[in-house]
Structures are given as C-alpha cells and as structure tokens.
Amino acid sequence: MDSNDRARLARFTHAHHPICAPLSDDSVTALLGRAVTTGQERILDLGCGEGAWLLRALAAHPDVTADGVDINAGGLTAARQSAERLGVDRRLGLHHQPAAEFTAAHPYDLVFCVGSTHAFDGLLPTLTAARRHLAPGGRVLIGEGYWQREPDQAALDGFEATREDFDDLPTLVDKVMADGWVPVAGHQSTQAELDDYEWAWTGSLAEWALDNPSDPLAADAARLADEHRHGWLHGYRDTFGFVTMLLRRQD
C-alpha cells in the first residue's frame, strides 16, 4: 500500500473512536476541564487528525480560538466539515503540513500533542517543539505510550516496537521533569480504555472491509485488522500503557 491508501484506511480505524488515543469521553472531558482554565485560550494541536480535541474545546468555550496541524488531508477535511456543523469554523485554522515544520505568528496558551509524538521522533523532541509555540505561563497536554511491565518478544513483535521505543512510567515522568516540566494533572488509561480503543480500531476496519468487498483496499483492510488484533491480544495487551499529562514549565 502507498501512503494515500494507508491514510485512507487509518480514517476507517477511528470511525467509532474519534479520539485517536485510548481515552474515554469522560477522560477527555476531565482533561479538557483541567487544561482549558479561562475559556479564552488560543490552542494549538500538533498532529490534530480530525480535530476531535479542538472541536470539543471550541464547542464548549465560545471565546477559544484554535489551530490544528496534520499531514492527513482527509482528516483535515473531516475536521473542517465537523467545525462547520458545530458553527465553530470561524475560530479554527487548519494547516496541511508536517507538525514539525509548523510556524505561527503568535504564541499559544495551550498546546496539544496526544498520541502524535512520532511526528517529532519522540517525547522530549515533541516537548521542545511545543515550547517554541508556548506563551509564558502556557500549558502542554501530551499523551504518550509506556511499558506497564518489561516487554517480552511477543509484545515487541505485536507492537512492532523495540524496548527502547518506550520507557516505564516512572522513567518517563522523570525525563519530563528533568527537561524542565512539571506535571500538574494526568491520566493513565485504564485497561478498559485501552481495550475499547483496540476493539474500535480493529472492528471498524474489519467491518468496513466486510461492507465494501469490491473495494480494491478491502483485502488489505481485513488483513490489517487481523494482524493488529493478533498483535494486541497475543502480544502487548498487558504490557503497553498510555498516559496523558498536563504540563507546565518550571521556569
């Protein structure tokens, strides 16, 4: 599959789980409640996908403005259409480019990067990029994976990862703090949230393949769903975790 085909299939995987991370609606609401404190923030989402985080913040706070950056044109189109339906499109700017290349004429009070640190080659480079966009006293909401326990080979194979790709949670937090950040709120995804995300990811893709058997990508979609489900259930299900943290600078 080429990159366009992969991007198309990726959209199907989140048909029933619009937050592209293992977080429930209640968890998203709680995190946004901690992150958006004045209701007048200027927000940036680096790797916004279909803009789910931004759309929720804009819909809840009529004085919030936001920008989203992503390389997936289909996701940005969906974000724009959703913003129009919600009546928040005038307060949302969408930018089709790599998140690492985005520049803005003004700083932001809040920067999101939940589940997209790969765009910057890791957690600490993501925080460095976020800091460049941050206004004094601003906050970063970041979501990152970690190892809940030492991964065995089945977990590494299932996730297509190496041991070095993630830290355990204490090491992850220590690195963030050593980089000059203070966690002021956080949420570790529960096993139910992690499982719900995987069932939605694989199930949505598998169902699309069943419903569209004549599509040239149907066989690839079914294979990808099967491979992902096997890697999760037989590999990393009890090993991989996900944490979302609200951070402020020590200085």
Automatic annotation (TrEMBL):
Entries under Gene3D superfamilies matching the protein: Vaccinia Virus protein VP39
Domain named Methyltransferase type: residues: 44-140
Top-rank lineage group of the source organism: Bacteria
UniProt keyword terms in alphabetical order: Methyltransferase, Transferase
MF GO annotations: methyltransferase activity
Entry-linked Pfam families: Methyltransf_12
Gene Ontology terms describing biological process: methylation
Keyword Methyltransferase: yes
SUPFAM superfamilies, sorted: S-adenosyl-L-methionine-dependent methyltransferases
PANTHER family: METHYLTRANSFERASE
Protein name in UniProt: Class I SAM-dependent methyltransferase
Organism for this UniProt entry: Kitasatospora acidiphila
